[in-house]
Each structure stands twice: as structure tokens, then as C-alpha cells.
Design goal:
heterodimer, A: two-stranded antiparallel sheet, globular, B: alpha/beta, Rossmann fold, 2 domains, six-stranded mixed β-sheet, three-stranded antiparallel β-sheet, 36% helix, 22% strand, transport (chain B), ATP-binding (chain B), P-loop_NTPase (chain B)
Chain lengths: 266, 296
């Protein structure tokens, strides 16, 4: 640390140590800002927890290698996790629109470090509903083999990263301050279509199989259900895998198009 | 080792043109040569669209010139930014509404690797009392001071301010420049773009007048004023000749006759500037200071 006054340093310019960005400090401040957003955190943690308590708690009917409580628990944790990643990615896009990106552009931080910090914040926030709902489930009678627990938690958590790309794509496509609201609103619609909230059958199920949350949620429940659906029928493993891969490509292309478009304007 | 004679800014033959939405080619900056020495306080003065912001963007490495070269302390501008030698308060730079003032400073300080500077810059920008306030609750002037604090974090040798007081009321503008003046006294090089003549007049030692992308005049501020405005002598008429509809015409004729032998022409009658009146009535700063400023 220098003890020289500014007037001295400016006349003896030149060899000053190259500053090293403290990315962890930045990420921590950013995370705290995210956690202060009460409405956002309600949808990420409060609502899915509440829905598990209403629909899952005490449902001991058998499903695959476990019970209904386990099935509902995984679904609601998945909803919470994708709401988290969508929200954080959406707010990252908004920061760029608001001009914070220009402010960051005047620091020595590299753009890739910013993406890494945001990803760390998103995955930390996404881990919260997963940890909480799995914890409540474990304490209140959700049952499954140990591998169901581990695989489901890992797939729910890591798979939610797909929806960070989705949140980015939507916010870049719609721009404007209400874009994050649109993104998380669409998540609710897609959660219904994706067989996350209530079991579907018939035409709605056929349609739902094509929507983004279906593959992700089905994959997270696969260790438990082995593909058997709550109402009737069975999905082969390739179906949710293909769904996730297809939507990864679609969201990525949308996001790339959005980034190109926002660059072209400036 | 860079020797001390390295100019803060050396730009030669800068040129930049943009294509408008209608496909027209507009030259924003046209053959600008500029050298700024360390410690100078320079105003870029000109109307909107004169090329000030484009020039500033090129000094910061945010825009690449079509032709010409820019060096900041002998380095490429982007490199100087990364090294913390130069920083800026930009017109388009934004803040995050849900950070507090202190958090905003801490976040940017972290990215500069200068967390040791947080308290110093808060105090410099006169924000210590507002540290815990959320950005969205700050006035436009306070947010602008916050951006100034962010610019001070790397302890830069050169600060560039692009229209720093846009949208501020008169009092906030005065307060902002007081903060700036205190900082400039420490020897920082300061370049600011403005379209308020008074700001260049009061604050800058050197004024660069820009219009249509070209530098039309570059001289000490006092010279620019002398060349374009001359000097103005004002005096106050006795109260009994001032009516609600102006000054008594017969009395004015007598003044004209009395002054004619002295070679005085273009006698003009104007009211006290509203800005001075407004300040005198509302500001917390002593009235003496304003009068002193007005008479300079």
C-alpha cells in the first residue's frame, strides 16, 4: 500500500503495481444484492417450498423406488432452481441495458470474469431452494433410494444452468425493464406444461413433452421413476435427454442472436 | 519508466464518422489534434453534436478512431484504463438501483483491486453521510457524485468527465463543482465536456471549443472569453428610476449622453441573472461566494 499523497504519485508516474480484480468480493456483494430482493426470493424459495408442503407433504403412495412426496419434492426444487437462474441471468442482462456494463468496462476486469462471477451467483442462489426443499423432504417423509436423492439433487442443480441461458435470451430479446418479469412469468406457464406442478395426460402431455421444462424435470425424476409417468405411460430415457439438448441449442442460438443485436445498436 | 514530460493526452489527426439510420455518413470528429499536459484542467465546450462525447470515447478507448492516433500517458487508451491511469464519469454509465452507495463503491473498488480506497473516495465525493443509502433514493446530483467517486477509485492521474452536471439543478451543479475543485487542487489532470459556458468559465484553465467535429479555438479560458465576449461592465441604477415596466427612458438617455464621450457604445439593459438570484435565495453557500464568482 502506498503512503504517498496523490500529488506525489502523479508526478512520479509510471511503475505502479498492476491492479488485480477481487472477483470474489464483487460476487459476494452481487449475491447479497440478489438475496435482498424479497419478491424475487419469494418466487425462488418461498413459493416452491409452500407448494411442496401443500402437494407433497405426507403423500406416501409409492412412485418408482420412492414415494409421491419425493416426486413432488424434486419437481418443486426444480421449479425453484430454474426461477433462480432465470432471475439472475435476467438481471445480468438488465444491468447491461442500464449502463452498468459501461461502468464495468472502465475497470481492469475481463468480460469472461464477469460471466464467471454471475454464473457463481446464479448457481449459489439456485442451490438454496434445492437444499431447503430437499432438507424439508428428508425431514418429513420423502422416500427414495440414496442414489435417487443424490442424482436428483445434482441434476436439478446443474440442469438449472440451462435456464440461465434462457433468462439471458428472453431479456436480450424483449429488452426493457419488464423483461425479467416476462421471463419468470413464462417459467410458471412452462412449469405447468412441463408436468412440473400437476401430472398431465392425453393431448396436454403430448404437447408438454416438447416444452423446455419437461425434459429437465423428467430427467431429474428419472432415477426415482425410471421413466414411469404418474398418470399413465413411460418415457424412454432418450426423450428427456433429447428435449434438454434441443432446448439448450435453441436458447443458445437465441442468446447469441440477442447479444449480436444489442451490439449492433450501439 | 515514463519520464514526467509525457503528455497526459496526445491525439493527432483524430477522425471518426458514423453511419446514420438513413445511411448518411456523418463525420463526428474531424481531424482533431490535441495535447494535454499533466495537471491541466481542460474544458471541451460546444453545442450538442459538436463531437465532444465521441472525442472522449476515443480518449477512453471505447471507440476506435477511423484515422489518427491517441495516446494516454504514452499508452494505448484501453491499456491506460486497465492500468488505472485514466478513468471517467460517463454520460451513459449507469448505476444499480438496489445497491447502496457504499456497496456500489465497494463493488467497483473490488474490480480495480483497490478495496483500500473505498473510504477515501466516499469522503472525496462528499458521500460519507449517504454511504448507507440505496442508489435509487439518491438525487440526480448525488448519483453523479457517486459516479465521480467510482472514477476516483483507481487514483487516476487523469479524470475525464462527460457532461457531468446534465440534469442537475443549479445548487447540485455548484456543489458538484466544489467537490471537483477540491480534488483538482490535489494535482489531478481533469478534462470535462460541457455545453454550459459558465462551467468552462468558472472551472477550466483552458477551453477547447468544438463545433461540427473540429476544434475551432483552443486557448486559456480567459483568452477565449476575451476573444469572443470581451468584458462587460455592469452597474446598478438608483432605485427611483426603476419602475415595474423597466428603467425610466429619459434617465437612460442621460446615461447614454454622459457615457458617449468615453467611447461607450451598445448600452444594454438586462435584469440580474436568474441563476444568481436563485442561488442567492436558495443556496446554503454564503452569498458572498456567489457574488465573488459572478464578478470574476
Amino acid at each position: 500500500m502506498t503512503t504517498l499523497s496523490h500529488a506525489t504519485t502523479s508526478s512520479t508516474t509510471g511503475a505502479r503495481p498492476l491492479p488485480r480484480p477481487a472477483m470474489a468480493t464483487y460476487a459476494r456483494l452481487d449475491l447479497r444484492r440478489q438475496l435482498r430482493d424479497r419478491i424475487g426470493m419469494f418466487f425462488i424459495v418461498g413459493l416452491p417450498t409452500f407448494m411442496y408442503l401443500v402437494f407433497g407433504l405426507g403423500s406416501d403412495d409409492a412412485v418408482g423406488s420412492g414415494n409421491v412426496a419425493m416426486y413432488v419434492m424434486i419437481s418443486m426444487a426444480a421449479y425453484g432452481a430454474v426461477t433462480a437462474t432465470t432471475g439472475v441471468a435476467g438481471s445480468a442482462a438488465m444491468e447491461q441495458v442500464m449502463g452498468w456494463g459501461r461502468q464495468l468496462g472502465l475497470t481492469p476486469m475481463r468480460p469472461l470474469a464477469f460471466v464467471a462471477a454471475k454464473a457463481a451467483v446464479a448457481m449459489t442462489v439456485a442451490a438454496m431452494p434445492v437444499a431447503l426443499i430437499f432438507g424439508i423432504g428428508a425431514a418429513t417423509g420423502a422416500r427414495g433410494s440414496w442414489s435417487d436423492w443424490v442424482l436428483a439433487a445434482v441434476i436439478v442443480w446443474l440442469g438449472s444452468a440451462l435456464f440461465a441461458i434462457y433468462g439471458l435470451a428472453i431479456c436480450l430479446a424483449f429488452r426493457g425493464t419488464n423483461a425479467p418479469g416476462i421471463a419468470s412469468g413464462l417459467i410458471v406457464v412452462m412449469a405447468f406444461l412441463g408436468n412440473v406442478f400437476t401430472p398431465m395426460s392425453g393431448f396436454m402431455l403430448d404437447l408438454g413433452r416438447l416444452t423446455p421444462l419437461y425434459g429437465y424435470a423428467a430427467l431429474a425424476r428419472f432415477p426415482l421413476t425410471d421413466g414411469w409417468l404418474p398418470v399413465a405411460g413411460r418415457d424412454p430415457l432418450w426423450l428427456p435427454v433429447a428435449n434438454v439438448l434441443a432446448w439448450t441449442v435453441i436458447f443458445s442460438l437465441l442468446a447469441i442472436w440477442g447479444v449480436r443485436r444489442s451490439r449492433a445498436r450501439t | 519508466m515514463i519520464d514526467t514530460s509525457t503528455p497526459a493526452v496526445r491525439a493527432t489527426g483524430l477522425r471518426k464518422s458514423f453511419r446514420t439510420a438513413t445511411g448518411e455518413n456523418v463525420v463526428a470528429v474531424d481531424d482533431v489534434d490535441l495535447t494535454i499536459r499533466p495537471g491541466e484542467i481542460v474544458a471541451f465546450l460546444g453545442p450538442n453534436g459538436a463531437g465532444k462525447t465521441t472525442t472522449v470515447d476515443m480518449l477512453l478507448g471505447l471507440t476506435r478512431p477511423d484515422a489518427g492516433t491517441v495516446e494516454v500517458y504514452g499508452m494505448a487508451p484501453a491499456e491506460a484504463v486497465r492500468a488505472g491511469r485514466v478513468s471517467a464519469v460517463m454520460q451513459t454509465g449507469g448505476l444499480l438501483n438496489d445497491f447502496t452507495v457504499a456497496e456500489t463503491v465497494r463493488a467497483i473498488a473490488a474490480l480495480h483491486g483497490r478495496t483500500d480506497r473505498v473510504d477515501v473516495v466516499l469522503e472525496r465525493a462528499n458521500l460519507t453521510a449517504l454511504a448507507g443509502r440505496r442508489v435509487e433514493a439518491c438525487s440526480g446530483g448525488e448519483q453523479q457524485r457517486l459516479k465521480f467517486a467510482l472514477a476516483l477509485i483507481p487514483d487516476p492521474d487523469l479524470v475525464i468527465l462527460d457532461e457531468p452536471t446534465t440534469g442537475m439543478d443549479v445548487g447540485a451543479r455548484q456543489e458538484f463543482w466544489q467537490t471537483m475543485r477540491a480534488d483538482a487542487a490535489l494535482g489531478r489532470t481533469i478534462v470535462f465536456a460541457t455545453h454550459y459556458l459558465a462551467e468552462a468559465d468558472e472551472f477550466a484553465e483552458r477551453t477547447v471549443l468544438m463545433n461540427h467535429g473540429r476544434i475551432v479555438h483552443d486557448a486559456p479560458t480567459t483568452d477565449v472569453r476575451a476573444a469572443y465576449g470581451g468584458r462587460t461592465v455592469t452597474f446598478r441604477p438608483p432605485a427611483e428610476v426603476v419602475g415595474t415596466d423597466g428603467i425610466d427612458a429619459a434617465w437612460l438617455d442621460r446615461v447614454r449622453d454622459a457615457l458617449a464621450p468615453l467611447g461607450v457604445t451598445d448600452l444594454e439593459v438586462s435584469a440580474a441573472s436568474l441563476e444568481a438570484a436563485f442561488l442567492a435565495l436558495t443556496a446554503e453557500i454564503p452569498v458572498d461566494a456567489i457574488l465573488e464568482g459572478a464578478s470574476r
